Model the fold of this input.
Amino acid sequence: MLDDLNTPVSSSIIDRDTPPKKTERVEIPPRHSISAREHLLQQEISSTELRERAWVEIDLAALAHNVRQVKRLLSVNAQLMAVVKADAYGHGAVTVAQTVLQHGATWLGVATIGEGIELRKAGIDAPILILGATHSPEQIRALAHFSLQPTLVSPQQARVFEQTLSSLHQSGAVHVKLDTGMSRLGVPWQQAVEFLQLVSRCPHLRIASIYSHLATADSPDPTVMQLQQQRFENAIANLRAAGINIPRLHLANSAATLTDPQLHYDLVRVGLGIYGLYPAPHLQPTIDLKPVLQVKARVTQVKIIPPGTGVSYGHQFIADREMLLAVVGIGYADGVPRNLSHKMKVSIRGQMIPQIGAITMDQLMLDASAIPDLQVGEVVTLLGQDGNNFISADDWAATLGTISWEILCSFKHRLPRVAVSR
Ligand SMILES: Cc1ncc(COP(=O)(O)O)c(C=O)c1O
Done:
């Protein structure tokens, strides 16, 4: 192989790679023949390339199962909002939204207007709540145009909404977020009555819900969560006393949904749970969830290295014996955290195989000595099920000192999302 690299490159190849001189005429084939060829090429690429190097598998049957499981926990009056922000936690927003709506979710939650527009453009007409902040008249016009429902958090913002919607001769649903202790977006809960009186006086704003977000619902210690719920309840009682009509209340994320039906109110906002992961180990017995996302890649080269061989950048790993080294076509630019270098195992043919050397941008290496007849092209499971092995985003999160939410969101668009149903 080395000899091949040293062979002089043929002159015809050099000619082809040289850009034409400015004065030269370049033949442009007729447009239709290019697009027909491109189309064919596209088809070939999509059927083979999707699983050629590395990919993410999205198990739609598991997703549907999780939605049904969560629905089963809810009281009859509580609806399910599937939180599909951040491209559905890396799972692919449109496919996830379509699937969860088919299986019982009635609302969708996203972080940004762009995420909402993507769903609308895909033909999804379920109510969509924008959980993040929106302020400017341009954003408000986009919200109105695409029927996206904003979160209101300040008097200044409410006034801009009222003015802009009035100029459009339109009214719109708005959701008021109270800060009961998360100290993130929201009107301080003590100012709920004052703020909602202001919103009620705006003829173009229709209050669709009042909600808050819990900071510690995944903790086994319920103290802070109970305090937040108490503040939420107090604010609601004060609003009712002030004669303000509240059509819908919501407070629970996945952890709270699994913890206590008293936290369900009229709607629960579930993200992690529908993707099949538990917000905390102590919540595992409450519900049977199936992980939806798997990450796979192929072996791209196999070779024997002698003892003393350094592997990857910096030679942080030196083989202490003869080893079968396997190269795999996935790296940190695909979302495999570089900090997992030397600390992760993958599964091949149902066997756990250690990763060695620094994880590089597009590739990583394994000590595959346990599988002496390993072939180029074999499938490597980085996350997910392979034989009896199951590698979870929770395992990576524990190794890295982070949370599974971050792991799921880290997989880049370079990895094709392939829908499967197991
Ligand atoms: C306001 C809000 N509600 C609900 C959720 C869903 O949380 P989880 O993924 O823990 O269910 C999130 C996610 O971060 C959120 O920001």
Remarks:
- The radius of gyration is 27 Å.
